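Reminder to self: tokens first, then the designed residues, so the page reads top to bottom the way the pipeline ran.
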């Protein structure tokens, strides 16, 4: 393929559109550099680091307007670790899982493999859609996903209800890894809302954060007091006890914590979740309007209400090579627009997290059109 040089006036101010690790704001990096000499390389059991953990917990509480009794719990390992943590410490006997992409299937797989649990009830749907939870009397935990990062599908989070309108008793455990901070949520509709900071929060990975209701905290305590063996790294009660002291069980990545705290305070200072979600709304409106008007591109997710506000997946017509588009964009400094590898579609995947300027998403669409015209 002959090289395509994009005119400088068309280029976005920042060319990072990856679905994680995501764009890190220069202001957050400047804040990190300012405190680095007295912060990096210090003990995570001392005030220097514990103060930052406290900033994170306070920032999350403020961003999601946490009700009385809800707590913010942190631990190492990211959302991947939390699937196992929840399997060991939150499911009593049987769980239900909605599986509609690569990541939403992971928690279901963990619970399926646990010899101390009954086989889970797994509801699946084809890529580009999401299924609905079904209220069941024998389910003690519902595993939902707010935003499926691999496919660009989001779903509204609500407690499962029976036909008579009564609310199911099971805990509602929501994977919000790519949604938290960029999509609105009523946290009272959840018992565990967990996520990692390398998406909307413009930080690095390796840390999980879980917002836990009083009911979820009590469930963890009860299971922890049972005869079930729980490895210390997966022991939720250890994480809860440490978080109440503004620390993590084992050494965290200090850069991750500081960048996370800075992003939270940026959100909250400017208007909280409504403000941050509105930025993603603006970016996604631009992306999907462009794709719908295009003769060669179309949104992969058919139902507008299920199209993610933070991770957009755009299919291209036969004869238009999305991989070639991504390659040309990358050569011009616009990176990480490639699709999720296992989905295997002729598409681009574009993140629209709050840290990405909506104007840069608009410029990206112009750049894609420019490349398509020259690919011929």
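Designed residues (376 positions):
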């Amino acid at each position: 393929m002959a090289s395509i040089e994009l005119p400088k006036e068309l280029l976005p101010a920042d060319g990072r559109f990856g679905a994680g690790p995501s764009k890190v704001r220069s202001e957050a990096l400047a804040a990190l550099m300012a405190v680095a000499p007295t912060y990096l390389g210090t003990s995570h059991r001392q005030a220097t680091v514990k103060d930052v953990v406290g900033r994170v917990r306070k920032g999350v509480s403020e961003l999601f307007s946490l009700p009385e009794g809800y707590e913010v719990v942190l631990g190492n390992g990211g959302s991947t670790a939390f699937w196992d943590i929840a399997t060991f410490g939150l499911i009593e006997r049987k769980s239900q899982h909605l599986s509609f992409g690569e990541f939403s299937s992971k928690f279901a797989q963990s619970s399926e493999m646990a010899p101390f649990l009954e086989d889970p009830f797994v509801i699946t749907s084809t890529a580009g859609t999401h299924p609905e939870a079904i209220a069941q009397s024998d389910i003690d935990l519902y595993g939902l996903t707010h935003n499926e990062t691999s496919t660009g599908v989001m779903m509204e989070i609500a407690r499962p209800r029976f036909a008579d309108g009564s609310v199911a008793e099971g805990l509602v455990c929501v994977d919000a890894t790519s949604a938290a901070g960029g999509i609105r949520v009523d946290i009272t509709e959840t018992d565990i809302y967990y996520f990692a900071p390398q998406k909307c929060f413009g930080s690095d990975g390796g840390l999980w954060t879980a917002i836990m209701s009083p009911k979820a905290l009590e469930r963890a305590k009860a299971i922890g007091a049972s005869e079930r063996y729980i490895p210390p790294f997966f022991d939720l009660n250890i994480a809860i006890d440490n978080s109440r002291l503004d620390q993590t069980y084992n050494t965290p990545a200090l850069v991750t914590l500081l960048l996370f705290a800075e992003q939270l305070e940026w959100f909250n200072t400017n208007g909280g979740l409504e403000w941050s979600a509105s930025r993603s709304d603006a970016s996604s409106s631009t992306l999907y309007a462009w794709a719908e008007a295009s003769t060669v591109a179309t949104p992969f997710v058919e139902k507008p209400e299920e199209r993610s506000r933070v991770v957009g997946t755009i299919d291209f017509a036969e004869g238009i090579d999305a991989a070639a588009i991504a390659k040309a964009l990358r050569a011009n400094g616009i990176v990480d627009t490639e699709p999720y590898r296992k989905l295997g579609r002729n598409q681009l995947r574009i993140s629209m997290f709050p840290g990405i300027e909506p104007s840069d998403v608009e410029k990206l669409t112009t750049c894609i059109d420019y490349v398509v015209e020259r690919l011929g």
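The mean pLDDT is 97.
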